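Quick question about two entries, pasted in order.
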Amino acid sequence: MNGNPERECMKSRTSADSYSSVLHCVVNLLGATCAAVSICVGILLCGPVLEALALPPADEVLRQLEISDRDRQRIREGELVTWTATEGSDRELALGMALLVKTKAENLTDLFREAATFMNIKVITAFGKIGNTGFGNIENGTRADFAGVTLAPNGEKEARRYLEVEPGNDLNLDAREMAAFRVLKSAGKDGTAPIQEVEALIREGLLARYQAYRTKGLAGIAPYARKSGRHLLASDELSISLKQSKVLAKYLPSVYDALVKYPVTNLKQGEEFEEQFLWINSEVLGRPTYALSHRTLFRVGEAYVFVDRQYYASHDYNCLQQGAVALQTESGTVVVYLSRVSTEQVAGFGSSVKKSASRVLMTPYFKDLLEALRAQAEKQ
Protein backbone atom coordinates (compact mmCIF):
# COMPACT_ATOMS: atom_id res chain seq x y z
CA MET A 1 0.00 0.00 0.00
CA ASN A 2 1.33 3.41 -0.91
CA GLY A 3 0.34 6.89 0.16
CA ASN A 4 -1.05 8.48 3.26
CA PRO A 5 -4.62 7.40 4.10
CA GLU A 6 -5.38 10.79 5.60
CA ARG A 7 -4.38 12.47 2.32
CA GLU A 8 -6.35 9.95 0.29
CA CYS A 9 -9.38 10.58 2.47
CA MET A 10 -9.14 14.29 1.75
CA LYS A 11 -9.10 13.56 -1.98
CA SER A 12 -12.19 11.38 -1.72
CA ARG A 13 -14.74 13.86 -0.37
CA THR A 14 -18.32 13.12 -1.36
CA SER A 15 -21.63 14.92 -0.98
CA ALA A 16 -21.64 13.95 2.70
CA ASP A 17 -19.45 16.92 3.66
CA SER A 18 -21.65 17.61 6.66
CA TYR A 19 -20.13 14.48 8.18
CA SER A 20 -16.59 15.16 6.96
CA SER A 21 -14.83 15.16 10.32
CA VAL A 22 -16.58 11.97 11.41
CA LEU A 23 -15.85 10.16 8.16
CA HIS A 24 -12.28 11.42 8.11
CA CYS A 25 -11.73 9.83 11.50
CA VAL A 26 -13.45 6.55 10.57
CA VAL A 27 -11.40 6.10 7.41
CA ASN A 28 -8.18 6.77 9.30
CA LEU A 29 -8.91 4.39 12.14
CA LEU A 30 -9.88 1.60 9.75
CA GLY A 31 -6.84 2.33 7.65
CA ALA A 32 -4.78 1.72 10.76
CA THR A 33 -6.01 -1.89 10.82
CA CYS A 34 -5.22 -2.70 7.20
CA ALA A 35 -2.10 -4.68 8.05
CA ALA A 36 -4.22 -7.33 9.70
CA VAL A 37 -6.40 -7.39 6.60
CA SER A 38 -3.42 -8.19 4.42
CA ILE A 39 -2.34 -10.96 6.74
CA CYS A 40 -5.74 -12.62 6.91
CA VAL A 41 -6.02 -12.80 3.13
CA GLY A 42 -2.57 -14.28 2.84
CA ILE A 43 -3.07 -17.08 5.34
CA LEU A 44 -6.42 -18.25 3.99
CA LEU A 45 -5.41 -19.05 0.44
CA CYS A 46 -5.28 -22.70 1.34
CA GLY A 47 -5.98 -26.15 -0.08
CA PRO A 48 -9.26 -28.03 -0.57
CA VAL A 49 -11.60 -26.52 2.01
CA LEU A 50 -14.99 -27.82 0.98
CA GLU A 51 -14.39 -31.52 1.56
CA ALA A 52 -12.70 -30.96 4.91
CA LEU A 53 -15.50 -28.78 6.28
CA ALA A 54 -18.42 -30.37 4.49
CA LEU A 55 -19.32 -26.90 3.30
CA PRO A 56 -21.73 -26.32 0.46
CA PRO A 57 -20.22 -24.99 -2.78
CA ALA A 58 -18.63 -21.56 -2.59
CA ASP A 59 -21.44 -20.09 -4.64
CA GLU A 60 -24.00 -21.24 -2.08
CA VAL A 61 -22.03 -19.77 0.82
CA LEU A 62 -21.83 -16.44 -1.03
CA ARG A 63 -25.58 -16.61 -1.58
CA GLN A 64 -26.13 -17.10 2.16
CA LEU A 65 -24.09 -13.96 2.70
CA GLU A 66 -26.66 -12.23 0.49
CA ILE A 67 -24.20 -11.59 -2.32
CA SER A 68 -26.27 -11.21 -5.48
CA ASP A 69 -26.18 -13.48 -8.55
CA ARG A 70 -24.56 -10.70 -10.56
CA ASP A 71 -21.85 -10.10 -7.95
CA ARG A 72 -21.10 -13.82 -7.64
CA GLN A 73 -20.57 -13.90 -11.39
CA ARG A 74 -18.29 -10.88 -11.14
CA ILE A 75 -16.21 -12.73 -8.53
CA ARG A 76 -15.88 -15.70 -10.85
CA GLU A 77 -14.70 -13.31 -13.57
CA GLY A 78 -11.94 -11.99 -11.32
CA GLU A 79 -13.51 -8.79 -9.98
CA LEU A 80 -13.30 -7.76 -6.34
CA VAL A 81 -16.79 -7.34 -4.92
CA THR A 82 -17.88 -5.46 -1.81
CA TRP A 83 -20.92 -6.47 0.17
CA THR A 84 -22.90 -5.05 3.07
CA ALA A 85 -23.29 -7.25 6.12
CA THR A 86 -25.93 -6.89 8.81
CA GLU A 87 -24.88 -4.67 11.71
CA GLY A 88 -25.81 -5.24 15.32
CA SER A 89 -26.01 -1.61 16.51
CA ASP A 90 -25.73 1.98 15.33
CA ARG A 91 -22.12 1.94 16.57
CA GLU A 92 -21.10 -1.02 14.42
CA LEU A 93 -19.72 -0.46 10.93
CA ALA A 94 -19.30 -3.59 8.79
CA LEU A 95 -17.37 -3.88 5.56
CA GLY A 96 -17.15 -7.07 3.50
CA MET A 97 -15.18 -7.95 0.38
CA ALA A 98 -14.79 -11.09 -1.69
CA LEU A 99 -12.39 -12.00 -4.47
CA LEU A 100 -11.03 -14.98 -6.39
CA VAL A 101 -7.31 -15.68 -6.07
CA LYS A 102 -5.49 -18.06 -8.40
CA THR A 103 -2.52 -19.21 -6.39
CA LYS A 104 -0.89 -21.73 -4.16
CA ALA A 105 -0.25 -20.16 -0.82
CA GLU A 106 1.54 -22.71 1.37
CA ASN A 107 4.39 -20.30 1.96
CA LEU A 108 2.21 -17.40 3.11
CA THR A 109 1.66 -18.75 6.61
CA ASP A 110 4.93 -17.18 7.72
CA LEU A 111 3.60 -13.77 6.66
CA PHE A 112 0.82 -14.20 9.19
CA ARG A 113 2.92 -15.65 11.97
CA GLU A 114 5.63 -13.02 11.80
CA ALA A 115 3.35 -10.00 11.25
CA ALA A 116 5.88 -8.85 8.66
CA THR A 117 3.31 -6.81 6.77
CA PHE A 118 3.01 -4.37 9.67
CA MET A 119 6.37 -2.92 8.68
CA ASN A 120 4.97 -1.73 5.36
CA ILE A 121 1.90 0.10 6.70
CA LYS A 122 2.66 3.78 7.10
CA VAL A 123 -0.02 4.54 9.68
CA ILE A 124 1.41 1.88 12.00
CA THR A 125 4.33 3.50 13.77
CA ALA A 126 5.26 0.60 16.07
CA PHE A 127 4.11 -2.84 17.23
CA GLY A 128 5.33 -5.58 19.52
CA LYS A 129 4.55 -9.13 20.56
CA ILE A 130 3.19 -9.84 24.02
CA GLY A 131 3.97 -12.91 26.08
CA ASN A 132 5.66 -14.82 23.28
CA THR A 133 8.23 -14.65 20.54
CA GLY A 134 5.83 -16.00 17.92
CA PHE A 135 3.00 -18.48 17.66
CA GLY A 136 3.17 -21.19 20.29
CA ASN A 137 3.39 -21.00 24.06
CA ILE A 138 1.78 -17.82 25.39
CA GLU A 139 3.14 -16.46 28.64
CA ASN A 140 1.66 -14.01 31.11
CA GLY A 141 3.38 -10.97 29.63
CA THR A 142 5.73 -8.48 31.29
CA ARG A 143 6.42 -4.76 31.25
CA ALA A 144 9.33 -5.49 28.95
CA ASP A 145 6.88 -6.59 26.25
CA PHE A 146 5.61 -3.01 26.11
CA ALA A 147 8.99 -1.26 26.15
CA GLY A 148 8.38 0.06 22.64
CA VAL A 149 5.16 1.86 23.60
CA THR A 150 5.88 5.58 23.38
CA LEU A 151 3.78 8.73 23.06
CA ALA A 152 4.42 9.47 19.40
CA PRO A 153 3.49 11.44 17.43
CA ASN A 154 2.80 14.68 19.33
CA GLY A 155 3.80 13.17 22.64
CA GLU A 156 3.60 16.25 24.85
CA LYS A 157 0.08 17.06 23.71
CA GLU A 158 -1.07 13.46 24.15
CA ALA A 159 0.53 13.27 27.59
CA ARG A 160 -1.59 16.25 28.68
CA ARG A 161 -4.70 14.41 27.51
CA TYR A 162 -3.87 11.52 29.82
CA LEU A 163 -3.04 13.75 32.78
CA GLU A 164 -6.26 15.74 32.36
CA VAL A 165 -8.48 12.81 31.38
CA GLU A 166 -12.13 12.78 32.39
CA PRO A 167 -14.90 10.32 31.53
CA GLY A 168 -15.81 10.76 27.89
CA ASN A 169 -14.76 9.89 24.35
CA ASP A 170 -11.33 11.51 24.27
CA LEU A 171 -9.62 8.46 25.79
CA ASN A 172 -10.85 4.92 26.40
CA LEU A 173 -9.99 4.30 30.05
CA ASP A 174 -11.80 2.92 33.07
CA ALA A 175 -12.20 4.74 36.39
CA ARG A 176 -9.17 3.09 37.99
CA GLU A 177 -6.91 3.98 35.07
CA MET A 178 -8.11 7.59 35.16
CA ALA A 179 -7.48 7.78 38.89
CA ALA A 180 -3.88 6.64 38.38
CA PHE A 181 -3.23 9.47 35.93
CA ARG A 182 -4.79 12.00 38.32
CA VAL A 183 -2.45 10.81 41.08
CA LEU A 184 0.50 11.18 38.72
CA LYS A 185 -0.61 14.70 37.82
CA SER A 186 -1.08 15.78 41.45
CA ALA A 187 2.35 14.47 42.40
CA GLY A 188 4.05 16.46 39.67
CA LYS A 189 5.20 20.05 39.63
CA ASP A 190 2.55 22.54 38.47
CA GLY A 191 0.16 19.71 37.59
CA THR A 192 2.50 18.16 35.05
CA ALA A 193 4.60 15.03 34.86
CA PRO A 194 7.51 13.92 32.70
CA ILE A 195 6.38 12.29 29.50
CA GLN A 196 8.35 9.18 30.43
CA GLU A 197 6.22 8.71 33.55
CA VAL A 198 3.02 9.04 31.53
CA GLU A 199 4.33 6.45 29.08
CA ALA A 200 5.19 4.09 31.94
CA LEU A 201 1.63 4.34 33.27
CA ILE A 202 0.21 3.68 29.81
CA ARG A 203 2.38 0.56 29.56
CA GLU A 204 1.12 -0.66 32.93
CA GLY A 205 -2.47 -0.17 31.82
CA LEU A 206 -1.93 -2.07 28.57
CA LEU A 207 -0.23 -4.93 30.43
CA ALA A 208 -3.10 -5.16 32.93
CA ARG A 209 -5.68 -5.21 30.14
CA TYR A 210 -3.76 -7.93 28.29
CA GLN A 211 -3.46 -10.11 31.40
CA ALA A 212 -7.15 -9.72 32.27
CA TYR A 213 -8.24 -10.68 28.74
CA ARG A 214 -5.74 -13.55 28.57
CA THR A 215 -7.16 -14.95 31.82
CA LYS A 216 -10.88 -14.23 31.45
CA GLY A 217 -11.53 -13.49 27.78
CA LEU A 218 -14.39 -11.11 27.04
CA ALA A 219 -15.38 -11.04 30.72
CA GLY A 220 -11.97 -9.61 31.61
CA ILE A 221 -12.21 -6.50 29.42
CA ALA A 222 -12.41 -3.37 31.57
CA PRO A 223 -15.10 -0.83 30.59
CA TYR A 224 -14.60 2.64 29.13
CA ALA A 225 -15.84 5.39 31.43
CA ARG A 226 -18.21 7.78 29.68
CA LYS A 227 -20.00 10.94 30.80
CA SER A 228 -23.03 10.92 33.14
CA GLY A 229 -21.81 7.79 34.85
CA ARG A 230 -22.21 5.63 31.75
CA HIS A 231 -19.79 2.91 30.77
CA LEU A 232 -19.17 1.27 27.43
CA LEU A 233 -18.19 -2.38 27.41
CA ALA A 234 -16.03 -3.49 24.50
CA SER A 235 -16.96 -7.05 25.49
CA ASP A 236 -20.60 -6.29 24.68
CA GLU A 237 -19.59 -4.75 21.35
CA LEU A 238 -17.54 -7.82 20.42
CA SER A 239 -20.39 -10.11 21.44
CA ILE A 240 -22.73 -8.14 19.19
CA SER A 241 -20.29 -8.60 16.31
CA LEU A 242 -20.08 -12.34 16.91
CA LYS A 243 -23.86 -12.72 16.91
CA GLN A 244 -23.91 -11.44 13.33
CA SER A 245 -21.57 -14.27 12.24
CA LYS A 246 -24.33 -16.74 11.46
CA VAL A 247 -22.50 -18.50 8.63
CA LEU A 248 -19.48 -19.10 10.88
CA ALA A 249 -21.71 -20.45 13.65
CA LYS A 250 -23.49 -22.74 11.19
CA TYR A 251 -20.54 -24.30 9.40
CA LEU A 252 -17.68 -23.87 11.88
CA PRO A 253 -19.32 -24.10 15.33
CA SER A 254 -16.10 -25.09 17.12
CA VAL A 255 -14.40 -21.93 15.86
CA TYR A 256 -17.42 -19.81 16.77
CA ASP A 257 -17.58 -21.30 20.29
CA ALA A 258 -13.86 -20.73 20.82
CA LEU A 259 -14.27 -17.05 19.96
CA VAL A 260 -17.24 -16.70 22.32
CA LYS A 261 -15.78 -18.68 25.22
CA TYR A 262 -12.08 -17.81 24.99
CA PRO A 263 -9.80 -18.72 26.79
CA VAL A 264 -11.74 -22.01 26.76
CA THR A 265 -11.23 -23.72 23.40
CA ASN A 266 -13.02 -27.07 23.19
CA LEU A 267 -11.89 -28.11 19.74
CA LYS A 268 -12.55 -31.54 18.30
CA GLN A 269 -9.89 -34.13 17.64
CA GLY A 270 -7.80 -33.13 14.65
CA GLU A 271 -8.65 -29.42 14.95
CA GLU A 272 -5.80 -27.03 15.77
CA PHE A 273 -5.60 -23.59 17.32
CA GLU A 274 -2.79 -21.02 17.44
CA GLU A 275 -2.78 -17.55 18.87
CA GLN A 276 -0.64 -14.47 19.05
CA PHE A 277 -0.95 -11.23 21.05
CA LEU A 278 0.29 -7.86 19.86
CA TRP A 279 0.25 -4.23 20.86
CA ILE A 280 0.02 -1.78 17.97
CA ASN A 281 0.60 1.97 17.83
CA SER A 282 -0.92 3.65 14.79
CA GLU A 283 -1.28 7.31 13.94
CA VAL A 284 -4.90 8.41 13.69
CA LEU A 285 -5.43 12.11 12.97
CA GLY A 286 -2.03 12.99 14.38
CA ARG A 287 -2.52 11.06 17.61
CA PRO A 288 -0.94 7.82 18.83
CA THR A 289 -3.59 5.12 19.00
CA TYR A 290 -2.78 2.02 21.02
CA ALA A 291 -4.59 -1.22 20.27
CA LEU A 292 -4.33 -4.68 21.82
CA SER A 293 -4.77 -7.42 19.27
CA HIS A 294 -5.55 -11.12 19.72
CA ARG A 295 -4.85 -12.94 16.48
CA THR A 296 -6.06 -16.51 16.17
CA LEU A 297 -5.53 -19.18 13.55
CA PHE A 298 -7.80 -22.22 13.43
CA ARG A 299 -7.08 -25.30 11.38
CA VAL A 300 -10.04 -27.62 10.80
CA GLY A 301 -9.14 -30.37 8.40
CA GLU A 302 -7.33 -28.63 5.58
CA ALA A 303 -9.11 -25.34 6.18
CA TYR A 304 -7.68 -22.29 7.91
CA VAL A 305 -9.72 -19.56 9.57
CA PHE A 306 -8.09 -16.32 10.68
CA VAL A 307 -9.63 -13.87 13.16
CA ASP A 308 -8.10 -10.65 14.46
CA ARG A 309 -9.80 -9.24 17.56
CA GLN A 310 -8.72 -5.82 18.79
CA TYR A 311 -10.20 -5.92 22.28
CA TYR A 312 -8.83 -2.52 23.28
CA ALA A 313 -8.23 0.78 21.47
CA SER A 314 -7.11 3.94 23.24
CA HIS A 315 -9.45 6.33 21.40
CA ASP A 316 -11.80 6.94 18.46
CA TYR A 317 -13.00 3.34 18.21
CA ASN A 318 -14.04 0.88 20.85
CA CYS A 319 -12.93 -2.46 19.43
CA LEU A 320 -12.64 -4.31 16.17
CA GLN A 321 -13.12 -7.85 14.95
CA GLN A 322 -12.16 -9.01 11.48
CA GLY A 323 -11.46 -12.27 9.74
CA ALA A 324 -11.55 -14.22 6.53
CA VAL A 325 -12.58 -17.59 5.16
CA ALA A 326 -11.47 -19.33 1.97
CA LEU A 327 -13.62 -21.46 -0.31
CA GLN A 328 -11.94 -23.66 -2.89
CA THR A 329 -13.39 -23.71 -6.41
CA GLU A 330 -12.25 -25.26 -9.67
CA SER A 331 -10.80 -21.95 -10.83
CA GLY A 332 -9.10 -20.90 -7.59
CA THR A 333 -9.84 -19.86 -4.03
CA VAL A 334 -12.65 -17.48 -3.15
CA VAL A 335 -11.57 -15.37 -0.19
CA VAL A 336 -14.28 -13.63 1.83
CA TYR A 337 -13.13 -10.91 4.23
CA LEU A 338 -15.29 -9.11 6.79
CA SER A 339 -14.41 -6.34 9.23
CA ARG A 340 -16.64 -5.09 12.04
CA VAL A 341 -15.59 -2.01 13.98
CA SER A 342 -17.43 -0.44 16.90
CA THR A 343 -17.13 3.34 16.91
CA GLU A 344 -19.29 6.09 18.27
CA GLN A 345 -18.19 8.18 15.28
CA VAL A 346 -21.04 6.65 13.25
CA ALA A 347 -23.60 6.39 16.05
CA GLY A 348 -26.52 8.63 16.93
CA PHE A 349 -28.49 10.95 14.69
CA GLY A 350 -27.94 10.22 10.99
CA SER A 351 -26.19 6.93 11.71
CA SER A 352 -27.33 5.22 8.49
CA VAL A 353 -26.16 8.17 6.39
CA LYS A 354 -22.80 8.35 8.15
CA LYS A 355 -22.28 4.61 7.69
CA SER A 356 -23.20 4.71 4.01
CA ALA A 357 -20.87 7.62 3.32
CA SER A 358 -18.10 5.97 5.35
CA ARG A 359 -18.29 2.87 3.17
CA VAL A 360 -18.10 5.00 0.03
CA LEU A 361 -14.89 6.55 1.30
CA MET A 362 -13.37 3.33 2.58
CA THR A 363 -14.09 1.06 -0.38
CA PRO A 364 -11.43 2.35 -2.82
CA TYR A 365 -8.82 2.28 -0.07
CA PHE A 366 -9.42 -1.36 0.81
CA LYS A 367 -9.92 -2.42 -2.80
CA ASP A 368 -6.48 -1.12 -3.72
CA LEU A 369 -4.98 -2.96 -0.77
CA LEU A 370 -6.63 -6.30 -1.55
CA GLU A 371 -5.85 -6.07 -5.25
CA ALA A 372 -2.18 -5.50 -4.43
CA LEU A 373 -2.23 -8.48 -2.09
CA ARG A 374 -3.84 -10.69 -4.70
CA ALA A 375 -1.15 -9.75 -7.19
CA GLN A 376 1.51 -10.52 -4.61
CA ALA A 377 -0.07 -13.86 -3.72
CA GLU A 378 -0.39 -15.00 -7.33
CA LYS A 379 3.35 -14.50 -7.82
CA GLN A 380 4.14 -17.12 -5.18
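Here is the second entry:
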Amino acid sequence: MNVEDILQAFKITEEQARKLIELIEQTGTIYAGKPIDAVMEDANNILNGFGIEALRDENAWVDHYWQNTIALYVNLGDTYITTIVYDTENREFLITSWGDFYETWMAERER
Protein backbone atom coordinates (compact mmCIF):
# COMPACT_ATOMS: atom_id res chain seq x y z
CA MET A 1 0.00 0.00 0.00
CA ASN A 2 1.40 3.37 -0.99
CA VAL A 3 0.26 6.99 -1.26
CA GLU A 4 -0.85 6.54 -4.88
CA ASP A 5 -3.04 3.56 -3.93
CA ILE A 6 -4.62 5.61 -1.14
CA LEU A 7 -5.23 8.62 -3.39
CA GLN A 8 -6.87 6.45 -6.06
CA ALA A 9 -9.11 4.70 -3.53
CA PHE A 10 -10.26 7.69 -1.49
CA LYS A 11 -11.13 11.33 -2.03
CA ILE A 12 -8.58 12.72 0.42
CA THR A 13 -5.61 15.04 0.21
CA GLU A 14 -2.06 13.86 -0.34
CA GLU A 15 -1.26 14.97 3.21
CA GLN A 16 -4.08 12.78 4.56
CA ALA A 17 -2.90 9.87 2.42
CA ARG A 18 0.63 10.21 3.79
CA LYS A 19 -0.74 10.33 7.34
CA LEU A 20 -2.73 7.15 6.72
CA ILE A 21 0.37 5.37 5.38
CA GLU A 22 2.39 6.61 8.36
CA LEU A 23 -0.22 5.24 10.77
CA ILE A 24 -0.25 1.86 9.09
CA GLU A 25 3.54 1.61 9.03
CA GLN A 26 3.79 2.44 12.74
CA THR A 27 1.29 -0.22 13.73
CA GLY A 28 2.39 -3.05 15.91
CA THR A 29 0.77 -5.39 18.36
CA ILE A 30 -1.04 -4.14 21.43
CA TYR A 31 2.34 -4.33 23.18
CA ALA A 32 4.53 -2.61 20.57
CA GLY A 33 3.76 0.26 18.26
CA LYS A 34 0.36 1.86 17.94
CA PRO A 35 -2.57 -0.49 18.68
CA ILE A 36 -4.66 -1.59 15.71
CA ASP A 37 -7.82 -0.16 17.27
CA ALA A 38 -6.21 3.29 17.55
CA VAL A 39 -4.97 3.17 13.95
CA MET A 40 -8.44 2.23 12.75
CA GLU A 41 -9.98 5.11 14.72
CA ASP A 42 -7.46 7.52 13.15
CA ALA A 43 -8.24 6.06 9.70
CA ASN A 44 -11.95 6.53 10.40
CA ASN A 45 -11.31 10.21 11.17
CA ILE A 46 -9.18 10.73 8.04
CA LEU A 47 -11.76 9.03 5.81
CA ASN A 48 -14.75 10.70 7.52
CA GLY A 49 -16.19 7.27 8.21
CA PHE A 50 -19.10 6.15 10.36
CA GLY A 51 -17.02 4.21 12.85
CA ILE A 52 -15.09 0.97 13.05
CA GLU A 53 -16.94 -2.29 12.52
CA ALA A 54 -15.84 -5.86 13.17
CA LEU A 55 -16.44 -8.84 10.90
CA ARG A 56 -16.97 -11.96 12.96
CA ASP A 57 -17.61 -15.56 12.09
CA GLU A 58 -18.82 -18.00 14.72
CA ASN A 59 -16.74 -20.78 13.12
CA ALA A 60 -13.51 -18.76 13.14
CA TRP A 61 -10.88 -18.55 15.83
CA VAL A 62 -7.99 -16.14 15.28
CA ASP A 63 -6.38 -16.00 18.74
CA HIS A 64 -7.20 -15.08 22.34
CA TYR A 65 -7.18 -11.35 21.61
CA TRP A 66 -9.22 -11.28 18.37
CA GLN A 67 -11.25 -14.41 19.13
CA ASN A 68 -13.71 -14.81 16.21
CA THR A 69 -13.08 -11.34 14.73
CA ILE A 70 -11.68 -11.94 11.25
CA ALA A 71 -11.37 -8.27 10.28
CA LEU A 72 -11.95 -4.66 11.25
CA TYR A 73 -13.00 -2.05 8.73
CA VAL A 74 -13.83 1.63 8.49
CA ASN A 75 -17.56 1.86 7.81
CA LEU A 76 -18.02 4.18 4.84
CA GLY A 77 -21.71 3.41 4.42
CA ASP A 78 -21.91 0.59 1.88
CA THR A 79 -20.88 -3.06 1.78
CA TYR A 80 -18.98 -2.74 -1.50
CA ILE A 81 -17.41 0.72 -1.19
CA THR A 82 -13.62 0.72 -0.99
CA THR A 83 -12.37 1.14 2.56
CA ILE A 84 -9.50 0.21 4.88
CA VAL A 85 -9.77 -3.35 6.18
CA TYR A 86 -7.50 -4.89 8.80
CA ASP A 87 -7.22 -8.66 8.30
CA THR A 88 -6.69 -10.05 11.82
CA GLU A 89 -5.61 -13.50 10.63
CA ASN A 90 -2.89 -12.27 8.27
CA ARG A 91 -2.18 -9.13 10.31
CA GLU A 92 -2.28 -6.79 7.35
CA PHE A 93 -4.13 -3.73 6.14
CA LEU A 94 -5.96 -3.91 2.82
CA ILE A 95 -7.69 -1.46 0.54
CA THR A 96 -10.87 -3.25 -0.46
CA SER A 97 -14.54 -3.33 0.40
CA TRP A 98 -15.52 -5.34 3.44
CA GLY A 99 -18.00 -7.23 1.26
CA ASP A 100 -15.27 -8.34 -1.15
CA PHE A 101 -12.99 -9.22 1.77
CA TYR A 102 -15.68 -11.38 3.37
CA GLU A 103 -16.58 -13.14 0.11
CA THR A 104 -12.90 -13.99 -0.49
CA TRP A 105 -12.50 -15.14 3.12
CA MET A 106 -15.54 -17.41 2.86
CA ALA A 107 -14.37 -18.88 -0.48
CA GLU A 108 -10.94 -19.66 1.00
CA ARG A 109 -12.57 -21.33 4.01
CA GLU A 110 -14.65 -23.57 1.76
CA ARG A 111 -11.52 -24.93 0.07
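Reply: Residues 83 and 97 are 5 Å apart (CA to CA). Residues 14-26 form the longest helix (13 residues). Hope that helps.
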